């Protein structure tokens, strides 16, 4: 009989995207057992995947916030130094160069998250596709840089994966309910 701890490890490893072969070797179980546990524990796996994505998103957001704050502080110090410098001095050119670089870096890190703060309950696939279309249009119009669009696209992609996993789980539960009703 397989232990509860093995099932917990199985859920974690599947949520990480590990293969049945890898999990079988790690836990000392067969691929058939992996397949059975996948069906049995699908909702726990999906929940674990969603929690991991949420944790990554929070860590990414906080890292972004801290980086933007650091860049802003550095930019302020450079601007203060520029104000006190005589522009005829050679180091001023260097400060101007830094001012431009930091200004560009700050703009590159800006991502308008207001469109991503929608309620997660009741999100439809069409909503996610609309977000993606809006991002493409913003990129085409020059409203965002390629780097910004790439970062936002990753967020939208993670939303789509979570949505698909939730939809799949709901469909499996519906099928299981029908099958139980026939027995």
Main sheet record: none
In helices, the fraction of residues equals over 70%
Secondary-structure element order, as H and E? HHHHHHH
For the record, the count of structural domains works out to: 3
**What is the first-to-last residue Cα distance?**
26 Å
State the assembly state of the protein chains.
single chain
Low-confidence stretches: none
Proportion of beta-strand residues: under 5%
Describe the 3D structure.
The chain has 3 domains: 40 residues; 54 residues; 69 residues. It is 80% helix and 0% strand. Helix 1 crosses helix 4. The longest helix has 43 residues. The model has no long low-confidence stretch (mean pLDDT 81).
How do the helices and strands line up, and which of them pair or pack?
Elements: H1 4-15, H2 20-27, H3 31-40, H4 42-84, H5 90-109, H6 125-140, H7 146-182
Helix pairs in contact: 1-4, 2-3, 4-5, 4-7, 6-7
């Amino acid at each position: 009989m397989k232990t509860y701890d093995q099932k917990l490890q199985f859920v974690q490893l599947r949520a990480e995207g590990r293969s049945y072969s890898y999990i079988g070797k790690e836990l000392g179980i067969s691929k058939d057992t992996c397949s059975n546990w996948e069906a049995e524990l699908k909702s726990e796996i999906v929940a674990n995947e969603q929690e991991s994505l949420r944790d990554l998103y929070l860590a990414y957001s906080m890292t972004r916030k801290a980086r933007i704050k650091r860049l802003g502080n550095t930019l302020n110090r450079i601007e203060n130094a520029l104000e006190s410098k005589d522009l005829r001095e050679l180091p001023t050119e260097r400060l101007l160069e830094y001012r431009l670089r930091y200004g560009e870096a700050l703009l590159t890190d800006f991502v308008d998250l207001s469109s991503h703060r929608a309620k997660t309950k009741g999100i439809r696939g069409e909503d996610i596709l609309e977000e993606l279309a809006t991002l493409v249009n913003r990129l085409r119009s020059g409203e965002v840089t390629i780097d910004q669009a790439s970062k936002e696209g990753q967020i939208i992609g993670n939303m789509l994966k979570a949505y698909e996993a939730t939809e799949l789980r709901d469909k499996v539960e519906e099928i299981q309910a029908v099958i139980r009703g026939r027995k």
